Amino acid sequence: MTDLADKVESILKSSKNIVILSHVNPDGDAVGSSLALCQVLINTGKINTSVVMPNEYPDFLKWLPGTGHISIMSKESKKAIMAIEEADMLFMLDFNSPDRAGEAQTHINASKACKVLIDHHPDPGHFADITISDTRSSSTAELVYRLIEMTGKLKYIDNNVATCIYAGIMSDTGSFSYNSSEPETYRVLSELLRLGVDKDKIFSRVYDNFSENRMRLLGFCLDKKMVVLPKFRAAYMSLSLSEKRMYKYVRGDAEGFVNYPLSIKGISFAAFFMENDGHVKISFRSKDHFDASKFALENFNGGGHKNASGGESELGLQDTINKFISLLPSYIKTE
Fold it and tell me: Phi, psi at residue 266, to the nearest 5°?
């Protein structure tokens, strides 16, 4: 990674317009890592640095420092497109394929800027000039910290930057419950704490910052929508369009719901099915040795990490669930 960091630093020196772009339905790692990198670069004097998100990010992340630097392409299309078109350096964070950038994909492909991909998901595509990829890393936020460190910019990490990095790592590991077994992760976290990060405040703002509707939705899902399949050591929950309307669902309200069934004794694989217009979004979580990423890749056009992955289905909600259940016997045989 040191040689790649040197290349990034060399290009940064001559870059004047820098854009940081992340994926559709941005999560805590996408937003945290993007804002951290943006603010560090601004602190170094690269004042024409901005962040573009393809669509809106969850309300529980809007307290993060620096959100004023974000343009939402789905709401501010002209501004976001202009930023990408005028960029001479384009950082692409937390995705491994250009189609994960949604409508921004066309503008990524057309851009003449130097493109730098920073990501921790498996099998990154070949669409960047420089690719910084490490699947052992807990998060893209952790990789951003290491890049900042290797380019000699640690002195530009203020409390705002440190907060964004910590939030990114914490949220992408389920508060350090998965994808967080490497010593390097805790070295980075210790450095952030040394910089004065308030970890309890960050936890509260991410995990204790939901609406009443969201809490009632969680109760509904656990009571009425959770199906436990002890024979297959699996469980799932689902949410239809009508149920989302019933609980005034907003983006991010179901964040983390998929993790709850794993708390049941004997359950090692969980899924959450969310009906959207035209497709079903699926989240998978696992523990022990089962590879949720492989399951998602082979069956639901998805991928991710061994214990945390996602996918999509063009089938209806019930047909998607039926397909999932039909695959479980083979999962038991290979697990």
Answer: 90, -10
Tokens 């479980």, located at residue: 328
In the chain, domain spans: 2-207, 212-334
Task: Residue 104: name the closest of 92, 114, 119, 112 by CA.
Answer: 92
pLDDT cut 70: percent of the chain above it: 99
Q: Which residue has the tokens 């005028």?
A: 86
Q: pLDDT for 52-92, tens place per residue?
A: 999 999 999 999 999 999 999 999 999 999 999 999 999 99
Q: Which two tokens stand for residue 172?
A: 């992408």
Q: DSSP code of 257?
A: G
Topology of the domain comprising 2-207: inorganic pyrophosphatase (n-terminal core) (3.90.1640)
Please name the fold of domain 212-334: Diaminopimelate Epimerase; Chain A, domain 1 (3.10.310)
pTM to 2 decimal places: 0.88
User: Three-state SS for 247?
Assistant: coil
| Alpha carbon distance 83, 112 (integer Å) | 13
- Tell me: the pLDDT tens digits for 211-255? 999 999 999 999 999 999 999 999 999 999 999 999 999 988 999
Lookup result for tokens 């359950």:
267
**Strand 49-53, strand 18-21: pairing:** parallel
